[in-house]
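Reading a protein record of the kind used here takes only a little practice. Each token is a code from a learned vocabulary of local backbone shapes. With that in mind, consider the following protein and its fold in token form:
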Amino acid sequence: MRAADLIMKKRDGQVLSYGELRFFIEGYVAGEIPDYQAASWLMAVYFKGMSAEETGNLTKLMMHSGKVLDLSSLKGPLVDKHSTGGVGDKTSLILAPVAAACGVQVPMMSGRALGHTGGTLDKLESLKGYNVTFTEPEILRILRETGYIVMGQTEHIVPADRKMYALRDVTATVESIPLITASILSKKLAEGADSLVFDVKCGSGAFMKNEEAALELADSLVNTGKAMGRKIIALITAMDEPLGNMVGNFLEVEEAWECLQGRGPEDLMEVSMALAARMLMAAGVCTNPEKALFLCREKIDNGEASRIFLENLKSQGGDPDWFRENAGSWRAPVRRVLKASAAGYISRIDAFQTGMAGISLGVGRSRAGDPVEPHTGIRFFAKTGDFVEKNEAVCEIFALSNQQADEALGIMERAVKTDPEKPEVIPRILREIT
């Protein structure tokens, strides 16, 4: 068997067998198949696609290309959530302690910011001492102690994805539904979750720009996961506008803390609670969304979710006292305020442009490996549908330098639009796929 023959076969739109895929993936991870042949194969997949069976086989092979965590000693149920990425998307920080308070154990393998989208690991690492790298015994300990863990992907877990994703990023082959599906599911299944909930974003600030593309990805994730014996639920949610009122690493943790005390913005609470409720349903804790939502809100109202958040913060090396002392006050020193140019309704806050403003402030990354700033960002005072007077503050920018602040302000001036007529507000939750 030769790599060139498999590239040719996929180029011509033929289906690769499990054995052929195994030869290719194992050869690439071992370094026997070079990057230039892997890049050619990825481009062939990009143009010709994969069958459902191929996608499932690719997912299995990538999952088993490295270590698979053994969490069988835990009482469970084990469930995780994955978002396809957005701006201001800090739902993981909220729903993990909520789900844990409801009796679910959450082994959450998260990612870092790249491009205009934020990263859960970067947000949590803005907290003093917070650690996201652990051995398997430490993972088990933290899950037993607090009910959830947020961790990064190690070099031993799904090495096929780590190598392949880096190559996809530089060969314009990221936007492939089978490759995205295999990348996401292989990592999530390798972490030991029994069931999964997906938040597939669509809109200007999302990877999938429209609902049709988001539906295609959600269907692929649900069907592939089901074929691998997992219970999968997906929600398609809107990402044309930033989620919540805060964009920034520490700022978003702070807003998540407000949500866990029942004081979060309505849009963020709605999406977070809907996802947490689906986690309970996927785990078999509840049978209908109304009961699951009630239970999630009860754990916020009685303080159990916020207590577990602080317990996890301590278990992962963080300092709860430092966090509570700095919440609401730790901000980068240079500030700018965007004021409404005219009286009217906010008709648009473009999520992509907001994300690009975040990059200029150091919130996100232009390239993998770039550093991020912990306490820069943007705070919104008004969102789409709100009425503002002329010169009323719409948002505040926190930067490390005047140059950063001025650049971000210029981007936000283009991102925010006002209109004399009140706009129709797009629902946040667009569709559910089970």
User: Anything to note?
Assistant: The chain has a mean pLDDT of 94. The two ends are 39 Å apart (CA to CA). The chain has 17 helices and 13 strands.
